[in-house]
Amino acid sequence: IVTLWYRAPEVILQQSYATPVDMWSVGCVLAELNTLNPIFPGQTDINQLNTIF
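The chain above was modelled as a monomer; its predicted structure follows.
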C-alpha cells in the first residue's frame, strides 16, 4: 500500500512491477522535500495518471 501521490504508474495501472517503482516513490518524496509541495498531487487514480502524464 502506497500513498497515491507516490505511486508509480505501473502500480496505478495494476501492471507487473519490480524495484524501480520504489525509486519512483523515493524520487517523488525527494522532489517534495525540495519544493515543499507534492510533485503529483492527484485525487483519484485517473487524476493521478493525468497529473503524471
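The mean pLDDT is 95.
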